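Re: the pair you flagged

First of the two:
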Amino acid sequence: MFFKQVWRNAIRHRKDNGLFFGSLIIAIIAFYTLLSLKEQDVMRYLAAVESVAVSKLFKLIPLVYMVSLFFVFFLVYFACKYQTDSRRKEFGMYLMLGMKYSRLFAILFCETFLNSLISLLTGIPLALFLTEGISLTTAKLVGLGIIGHRISFSPDALLYTVCGFTLVQLLSVFVICMKLSHTEPAAFLADDFAQEHEKNFSGSGAFFFLAGVLLLIIAYAMGMAVLDTLGFGAFFMVFLFGTLGTIFLYKGLGYVIGKGIEKKSRRKAGLSVFTARQLQENVFCQHQSLAVSSLLLLLSLACISFGIGTAAGSHETRTTDLSVKGSDAQIQSFLSDEEIAPMIETAYPMYLSYTHTSRDLEPVKNAMAKLPQSDLRDNMMENITDSCDYILSESSYNSLLSAMGKVPVSLNPDQMALFSSMSTADFTNIMNAALNQNVTIKVNGAEYSLLPCLYYDNIVADRMISLYTALIVPDEVFEEIADDSEPFCYNLHLSESVTAEKGLLAALSDMGEILSARGLEYDSYLGGIGRNLFYTVASSYLTLYLGILFLLIANTVIGLKYLIWQRQNKHRYITLLMLGENRNALCQSAKSQIQTFFNLALVIAAINGIFAVFSMFRSFLRLPSTAAFLLVALMAAAAFLLFILTELVYIHVVKRTACREIMELKLSR
C-alpha cells in the first residue's frame, strides 16, 4: 500500500509540474556534459598536445560542478516548496487520519527518490546523445575528422551526476520536511490567505526607481567608456552599480505601475484594473525575485555571448601544415624521398631575415596620428618606429598565399607591403586606415610606397616566430638588404588524398614522427589546433554551460514565484467567480499577468545585456580579424533564437499551469 501510494503520487505530481521536471532533466544533461569532457575525442587529443593546460582545466571542472550544485539546490528547493504548498491539505488529511510525521516524510523522500530516478533515466540517454554530437561536431569543425572516434561514455561522470543530483533533491526535501515538522495538522487544512506584504510608499518608490535608473546609466557609461582601460577596479564598480541599480529599479517599479494604473483605470473595463493591480502587488512583493532573476538572465546572456565569441575567435587559420628547419641538403633529401614525396602537395622555402638597414617609419606614425584617439592607437604609434626589423621576400610570401588559394601580392620595384602577426580586428583596422593615406617610407635611403592594406597570414605553421611588424619586399631588395639569404624554414602542405584518407590529425602526427626520425626540427599546425581548442573548451564550453544553467534557474524561479503567488491569493479568484465572472476571463487575466511578469525580468535583462555584451567585446574579448563575421553572426542568431524559444516554452508552461489551477477552483456552497 505504501509503495503504491508513492508511485501514484509521483506520477500525478510529475504530470502536474512539467516545468519543474523539464528543468531537472536539462540540469542532468548539463551536469553529465560538463563532467564527461575528458572522455570526448577533442579532450583526448588535447591531453596529448596540451597536457599541462588540460590538467589545469580538469582541476577547474570540480569547482564549476560544486557551484552548479549550489545553484541547482535553490532551483530544486523552490520547486519542491511549490509542490508541498500545493499539497498542504493532502498532508493535513493524512495527519488528521493518524499518519505519523515520520511516515509522511518517508512518503515525500520516496517520491523524491522515484522522481529523481525517472529524471535520470530520461536525462542520461539524452546527455549521452548530446555529448556524442558535441564530440563529432567539434572534431569535424576543426578538421580532426572522425578517424579514431570512440564512444565517450564516462562512468565517473555518470556516478557524480547521479550522486550530486540525488543529493540535491533529497537535501531540498529534508529542509522542507524540517519546516513542516513544526506545523500542526490543523494549520495544513487552513485556507491559504495572502501574506502581509511590505508597503512601498509613493515617496520611497519614486526614490528607488529614479536611483535605480541613475545607477544603471552610470554603469552603462563606465562600461562603454573606461572598462577597457581601468582593469579590475572599473569592472567591480560597473558590477556594483549595475547590480544595485537593477535591485533599486525593481523595488520602485511597483510605484511606477501604480501611477500608470491611476491614469488609465477610468478608461478600462472588465478585469483590466484587477489584472493591473494584481501585477502591481506581485511586483511589490516579488521585487527581490524579479531582480535576482533578471540578473541571472543577464549573466546567462553574458556567458552565452562570451562562449560564442571565444568559440568564433579561437579559430587558428591554417596557412601551412608544417614548417621545417634544417640545412638545404637535408630538406631536399627529405622531399625527394620516394615514400614521402606523394604525401606532400606543396613545399617552398620561406625567406625571412633580420636586417640592419636604416628604416624611417615616421610617415606611418604620422598617418596613425590623424586617426581617432584610442589607447591601442597610441600604443601602436609608440612601437611602430622601432619595429620592422625583419623582411619577407615577395615570392616566398606569394607561395604561401597561392597554397592557401589567395590572391598573391603584386609589388612594383618601388613598393613594399606591411606584415604583422597581430591579427586582432582593432589592430588591423587601425593599420589599414593609416596605410590608406598613401604612406611612403625610406629604407636604406630609397623611398618606397606601402600597399594600402596590412597582410597578416601566419608565415609558419604555428609559433616558430611571431612578428609585431615586418616588411614584404621585392626579391631583389631582399637579396640586397637581408642579413641572411638562407631560407628561414620550408613550409609543407600535405596532399589532400592523405588527409582525406587518414584525417588531418593522423596525417600530421605521422608526418611529425617521420620528421623527428630524420632529426629535423619542425613546427606543426597541430600545436595551434591544440592551443586554440583548449581556449575554446576552457572558455566556451564552461561559459555556455553556466549560461544555460543561469537561464534555466532564472526562468524556473520566475515561473514558480508567480504560481506560488497565485496560489496564495486564490481566494480572490474564488470571490470573482462567486460574483459571476467567467473562468475563461480569469484565465486571460492570469495569462496577461504572467506575460507581463516575465517581460519585466526579460526587458531589463535585455537592456542590461546589450550594454554588458558591448562593453565585454570592447574590453577583454576582442575578436581577431581572422574570425569570420558571418560565422559569429550565425552563431549569435542561433543562440538568440534558442533563448527566445526557451522563454516561450517557460511562459507557455506557466500559463497552462495557472489556467489549470483556476479551472480547478471550487466554490464553497
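Second of the two:
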Amino acid sequence: MKLLGRVLSQYLIIGLVVILIMSAVLSSILRDQEIDDISDDTMESLESIDFALSTFIESVEQDVLGLSMYEDVLTPYDDNFTSFLNATGANFTYSDDPLELKIVEIFRSFQQSHPYVNSVYMGRENGAFVRSYPRAEPTQYDPRNRPWYEIALENPGEIVRTAPYSSVTTDDVNIGIVITIYDTNETLLGVVGCDITLEELTDYVVSTGGTNDGSMILIDGSGTILAYENESYLFENISAVLGLSTKDILDAENGSIHVNDSYLVFYTSPQLGWKLGSMIPSVVIEEKINDQVMTTFLFVILTLALISIITLILIHYTIIRPLGALTGTSEMIAETGDLSNKIEVHGSGEIEILGRSFASMMERLSSEKEKRTEVLKELELYRDHLEEIVEVRTHELEKAKEAAESADHLKSAFLATMSHELRTPLNSIIGFSGILLQELAGPLNEEQRRQLSMVEGSSEHLLALINDVLDISKIEAGQLTISMAPVSVPDSIDKVARTIRPLAERKGLKLETVVDRNISNIKGDGRRVEQVLLNLLSNAIKFTDQGRVGVECEQVGDEIVIKVSDTGIGISKEDQNKLFKPFSQVESGLTRHYDGTGLGLSITKKLVEMMDGRISMESEPGKGSVFIVTFPVIRT
C-alpha cells in the first residue's frame, strides 16, 4: 500500500476512534449539564411557587387575624350558640340566635372571598361550635378536643398553622389556620380559624403549573404529602412515593434525586418549612439530552471532516510528495549501486533534515567504500606476514600468562596472610571475652557485661565475615578442596539441629525435623554438607520472627531431597534472582533490618554444586520460604 493510502486509512481509523470517544464523553458531560440546568430552572420555579404559596398562606393567616377582631366574634354572650356536645343526629337543630347568624354570615363572606378555604369556624370554651356552613353530619362533637383547638391554646394570641388532621364527619384531611380570642377582660372565649383541605391545597399548587413538564408535590416537615396530582397519596408519608430515597429528601434543604423513572427536584420553604418538589420524567430529560447531543455531534463531525480535508491536503504537499521523491531516488541507488546519484531535497522541517541526512549518509557510504578498499589492501599485507604477527602475539600471551600466575600466587599469599593475621587475633579476642564474661578474672557489673557481650558478638560476626570471604575467594580461585566420601545425611541433620536449636529457642521458634532414617548415603564432604545445612537454618531463623523452622529429608528415586522451610518474611519474585549472588541482599543500605554479608547463600550454592547437587527455592512474601537441596545417592 502506498504511503498516501496508509495515511488515509489510519486517518479514518483515528477519526472514528475520536468520534466514538467524543460521543461517549459528550453524552456524559451533556447529560450532567442538562440535569444541572433543569435542576437550576426547576429550583427557580419552585422558589416562585413557594413565594406564591407562602403569600397565599400568609394572606389567609392575616385575614384570620382580622376575622378574630370582629366585635360580634368577640362577644362573650355565647350561651345560645349551637352546641354539638349532646347531638343525637336526626333530631338535631341549629340555633337561631341572631348574634350567631351574624357571625355565620361573616364566616361565609370570608369563605367566599377565599376560594381555597374549605370552612370557617369558631369553637367556644363552653363547647359551642359555630361554622360557616352546617356540618355534613350533626354528630356529637366537642371542638375543645380537636387538634386545631388544642394547638391554638398552646400558642395563645398567635396565628398557628396545624399539622394535617382528619375531619370527623367527612374523608377530608385539613390544615387549620387558627388563633385564640379573648374578651375585654382577657378571658379566653375560644378559638377561631379556617380549614384548607389537602384537595383544595392540591388544586392550588397544581394550578401554579409544574416545571419542565414535571408534576408538583408538597410535603410538610414530617414527610406527610400535602399536595400531589395523584390524590390517592394525600396524607400519606412521602416514603410511599420515594421508597428508600425518603431520607435523602428529608435530611437535605434543597437538591435533586433520581426516583424510579423520574428526577425529583425539591426546595424547602424557608417560611413554611414545607418542601416543594417537581417530579420530572426521565424521558423528558433524555429527549433534551439526545437533541443537544445530536446537534453537538453533527457539528463535531463537520468540524473534523473539514479539519481532515485541510490536513490531508497539507500532508500530501508537505510530506508525501517529498518522501515519494526521496524514495524514488533511494530505489534507484539500491538497484544500480551507484552512490554518485544526487538526492534533491524538497520540503522543509523534518523532511528537509531527512533529505540532507540521507545525502550525508550517501557521502559517508562512498567514503567508507574507499576506506574498505584500503583495508582490503592492508589485509592482503597482513596475510603475507601472518607468521611473523602470530609469533609476536604468542610472545605477548606468554608474558600475560606469567603475569596472571604471579597474581594468583600473590592472591594465595594474601589469603594465607588473612587467615593467620586476622583470624588468630579475632579468636584471641573471642576467647578472652568469653573468659571475662565467665567472671574468671573477677566479677563484672551490668554495663561491663553488656559492653563485653557486644565485643564478643562483633568479633564473632567479623570472624564469620572473614571466613565467608575466604571461602568465596577459594571457591572462585578453584583452591577449595572437597573430600568425596559417603555421608549420612540424617546424621548431619541431627548434628546441625543440636547446634542451631538454642538459637531458635532464644527467638521463641519451634525447630522441627522430619527425616527418613532409611535413606541411602550421598557422596560428598560431611563438613561441607553440615555447613550448607547450618547456613540455610541460620538464615531461616534470622528471617523468622514467629512460628516455626523445619527440616525435611526423604529419598525420591536416586536423589536425596532436603527441604529447609520457615514461616518468616518470605521473598518476592523480583528479589529471588538476587539470592545466590555474592554480596547480594534483598535489603540494602543503612535502613535494612537484618545484618549479614550476603555471602552465605552464594557459598551454599557453590558447595552444593561442587558435590554434584543442586539448590532451588520457593517463597511468597509474608508466608515464608522453602529452600530445596538435592544430592544424588551413591549407587551400589
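Residues 3-67 form the longest helix (65 residues).

-B.
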